[in-house]
């Protein structure tokens, strides 16, 4: 409408000019907003965690574009007729426009005068992004700094309560020594509930940090994590650092507490333990790994009761009687409840510690027969300590073990690629066992598979919309061909930008020199 009104013979009818301007620009404006709306189609195709996270953004953006398209062809022409009035000056009288044209026209003229050189430079710039693209990794979702950190180290199973308390206090003191740390709170073990099945060997320490303005100048959160990892180095402790909210989401959605891991499934827990330990040693040599810890599947200690069924039948004692007797002696049994107002306290009765921790003393303990006599437990059963799985984990009805991996950077794809090459060369897989990458990498692969199908469909729909605008396929192809060159702006570094800047400055210098010689 500005271009129409700056003409001397525009006619004096603002509403007619507004109608004519809207008819000229409206279709292109409407279809351009439609292209932006269609470009969000891949986000709608995402499922799982990524779909739930980005769907609100896609819906909001789509609603905004739909409203913009509707207002652009209805309300906007009316507002133009009301507000764009008075004397409109020519575009060339604007000093800002003249300055921009003075910069743009020499570059445009130089490009059109030298089409072969311009095309060659453009192709070289396009080829220059090959190296950055080859070095660029991929991750599922970048971690967001939450203001706090979560330290979740893992030690070997079979850890005593006293040693767990000691390790927790030592790690808390080491973390608290750093000036960036405000408060530290650590937890070992789990609550008496099935919602937190954490073993005693897994710690959870929440680290509250001071504001970044109080940190040393130039220090980033990744630098702080590296400093903490160097500070907290204890034998038998495998460090894992993360953010509280992000780690909880990973544990709920992926089943592991690190962003990346390996699940080993097979028919036997000992074979799984052997494979996970070999993977732990193997993956520590891969570049970019911060810590690797193999879950000790067979790290538990158990009191095994082997009942002599013939001897027990001779005395009239069942297997259930023997197991109940040992369970009450070692684990205890609730015999009564103390009531104090609204509070209830169970009374648990069991053998003293000296008897419970001695196999000889436990074997000499007497069990009452149905006839009233008492005989030593050793006459009816044999007691011995045995090793077994600390916890039994299964996936798809198969026994499973996990290897937890934390990386120094965020390039999961490169690490997995190098780790797979190393495993193919150095790891022998027994029959019946399988290895699978789990965690955020599994979500990344799932999202890539869906995007590989939906992205070509999205580009096809955008091409159809462009055809509706231009009505000519060569113009559509010309617009699509510009897309690869848009990557240059995102990938080119300063030295590559100089390839374009230096020839432009050289052209201007030549023009000034030529004018000076003529004058």
Compact summary:
54% of the residues lie in helices and 18% in strands. Strands 7, 8, 15, 16 and 17 form a five-stranded antiparallel beta sheet that branches.
Overall 3D shape: elongated
What low-confidence regions span 5 or more consecutive residues with pLDDT below 50? none
How far apart lie the N and C ends? 42 Å
Q: Give the C-alpha Rg.
A: 36 Å
Mean pLDDT: 82
Helix content: 40-55%
Task: Explain what this protein looks like in three dimensions.
- The chain has 519 residues and is α+β, with helices and mostly antiparallel strands.
- The protein has helices at 2-5, 14-38, 41-45, 48-73, 75-83, 95-113, 115-128, 130-135, 161-176, 221-231, 244-254, 269-283, 309-315, 319-330, 353-356, 359-364, 412-426, 440-470, 473-491, 494-518, and strands spanning 148-151, 154-155, 181-188, 203-209, 237-238, 241-242, 260-266, 289-294, 300-307, 333-340, 343-349, 366-368, 374-376, 381-388, 394-395, 398-407, 434-439.
- Strands 7, 8, 15, 16 and 17 form a five-stranded antiparallel beta sheet that branches. Strands 3-4-1-6 form a four-stranded antiparallel beta sheet.
- α2 (14-38) runs antiparallel to α5, α2 (14-38) packs antiparallel against α18 and α7 (115-128) packs across α19 (473-491).
- The model has no long low-confidence stretch (mean pLDDT 82).
Could you outline the blueprint of secondary structure elements for this entry?
Blueprint: H1 2-5, H2 14-38, H3 41-45, H4 48-73, H5 75-83, H6 95-113, H7 115-128, H8 130-135, E1 148-151, E2 154-155, H9 161-176, E3 181-188, E4 203-209, H10 221-231, E5 237-238, E6 241-242, H11 244-254, E7 260-266, H12 269-283, E8 289-294, E9 300-307, H13 309-315, H14 319-330, E10 333-340, E11 343-349, H15 353-356, H16 359-364, E12 366-368, E13 374-376, E14 381-388, E15 394-395, E16 398-407, H17 412-426, E17 434-439, H18 440-470, H19 473-491, H20 494-518
Helix pairs in contact: 2-4, 2-5, 2-18, 7-19, 18-19
């Amino acid at each position: 409408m500005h271009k129409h009104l700056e003409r001397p013979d525009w006619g004096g009818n603002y509403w007619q000019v507004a109608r004519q301007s809207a008819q000229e620009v409206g279709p292109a404006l409407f279809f351009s907003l439609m292209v932006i709306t269609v470009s969000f189609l891949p986000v709608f195709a995402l499922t799982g965690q990524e779909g739930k996270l980005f769907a609100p953004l896609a819906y909001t953006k789509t609603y905004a574009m739909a409203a913009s398209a509707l207002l652009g062809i209805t309300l906007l022409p009316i507002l133009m007729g009301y507000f764009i009035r008075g004397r409109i000056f020519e575009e060339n009288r604007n000093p800002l426009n003249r300055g921009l044209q003075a910069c743009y026209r020499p570059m445009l003229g130089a490009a059109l005068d030298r089409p072969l050189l311009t095309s060659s430079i453009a192709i070289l710039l396009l080829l220059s992004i090959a190296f950055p693209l080859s070095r660029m990794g991929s991750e599922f979702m970048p971690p967001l700094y939450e203001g706090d950190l979560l330290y979740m180290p893992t030690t070997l199973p079979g850890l005593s309560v006293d040693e767990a308390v000691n390790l927790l206090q030592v790690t808390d003191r080491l973390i608290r020594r750093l000036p960036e740390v405000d408060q530290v709170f650590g937890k070992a073990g789990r609550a008496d509930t099935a919602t937190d099945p954490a073993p005693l060997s897994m710690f959870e320490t929440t680290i509250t940090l001071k504001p970044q303005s109080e940190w040393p100048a130039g220090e980033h959160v990744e630098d702080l994590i590296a400093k903490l990892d160097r500070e907290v180095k204890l034998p038998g402790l495998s460090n894992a650092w993360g953010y509280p909210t992000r780690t909880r989401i990973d544990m709920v959605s992926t089943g592991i507490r690190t962003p990346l891991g390996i699940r080993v499934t097979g028919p036997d827990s000992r074979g799984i333990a052997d494979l996970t330990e070999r993977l732990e040693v193997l993956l520590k040599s891969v570049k970019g790994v911060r810590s690797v810890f193999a879950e000790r599947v067979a790290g538990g200690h158990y009191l095994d009761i082997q009942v002599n069924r013939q001897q027990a039948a001779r005395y009239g004692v069942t297997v259930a009687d023997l197991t109940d007797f040992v369970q009450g002696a070692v684990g205890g049994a609730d015999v009564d409840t103390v009531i104090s107002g609204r509070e209830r306290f169970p009374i648990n009765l069991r053998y003293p510690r000296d008897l419970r921790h001695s196999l000889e003393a436990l074997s000499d303990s007497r069990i009452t027969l149905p006839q009233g006599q008492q005989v030593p437990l050793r006459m009816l059963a044999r007691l011995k300590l045995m090793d077994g799985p600390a916890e039994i984990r299964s996936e798809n009805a198969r026994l499973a073990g996990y290897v937890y991996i934390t990386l120094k950077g965020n390039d999961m794809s490169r690490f997995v690629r190098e780790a797979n090459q190393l495993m193919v060369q150095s790891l022998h897989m027994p029959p019946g066992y399988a290895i699978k990458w789990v965690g955020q990498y599994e979500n990344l692969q799932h999202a890539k598979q869906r995007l590989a199908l939906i992205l070509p469909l999205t580009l096809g729909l955008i091409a159809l919309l462009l055809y509706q605008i231009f009505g000519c396929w060569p113009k559509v192809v010309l617009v699509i061909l510009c897309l690869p060159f848009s990557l240059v702006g995102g990938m080119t570094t300063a030295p590559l930008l100089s390839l374009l800047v230096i020839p432009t400055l050289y052209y201007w210098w030549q023009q000034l020199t030529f004018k000076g010689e003529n004058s």
